[in-house]
Design brief:
By secondary structure, the chain is α+β, with helices and mostly antiparallel strands. The chain contains three helices and seven strands. The longest helix is centred in the first third of the chain and has 34 residues.
């Protein structure tokens, strides 16, 4: 093998890694967009592997643990009953693709202003501010990336009026 062959292989690996990073970024951006577009449960479910795990702590009516694509779809189908509006802002990402190019991990911070209902019949809702961190695992299958595990920790789910200093997690009636 020549130096030129080695250089081509190295360049090919580097380009594939960049493409993988961008595809993973897009998967998680599509997840955020589907949530902010009325919690499109079918669009969200397609981003996950068949045996995926979705978990957000601490456990509240809008968090918990859901195992499998169908359970994730069912969970997101009911979220419009809890939210009137949401805007997920993801940032400070760190994505690591394994050397085999088949698995990856990704970490994102979340800042999410939203309007949540106080009760099922609440038409107005209240301004809520959510922050947290996502620590996700991704799998490449059939040529594309999917979420294998979404694991998040919410640092606060606070009403805008009271704030996160006095109310880390809002109470719901």
């Amino acid at each position: 093998m020549t130096d030129q062959d080695d250089a081509i292989k190295s360049l090919t690996r580097r380009i594939q890694r960049l493409e993988d990073l961008e595809e993973i970024r897009n998967v998680f951006n599509r997840y955020s967009h589907a949530m902010d577009s009325g919690f499109d449960s079918n669009a969200i479910a397609t981003l996950f592997t068949e045996d995926a795990v979705w978990s957000i702590a601490p456990a509240t009516p809008v968090t918990g643990v859901h195992r499998g694509r169908d359970a994730i779809r069912e969970f997101f189908a009911q979220l419009p009953n809890e939210y009137r509006w949401t805007m997920h802002n993801m940032g400070t990402e760190i994505i690591d693709v394994a050397d085999d190019g088949l698995t990856a991990t990704g970490t994102w911070y979340l800042v999410d202003p939203c309007t949540m209902k106080r009760s099922p019949d609440d038409e107005e809702g209240e301004a809520v501010f959510i922050t947290g961190i996502y620590r996700n695992r991704f799998t490449r299958a059939d040529g594309f990336w999917q979420i294998q595990e979404l694991a998040a920790e919410m640092w606060n789910i606070s009403t805008w009026e009271t704030g996160w200093v006095r109310e880390q997690y809002r109470s719901v009636s």
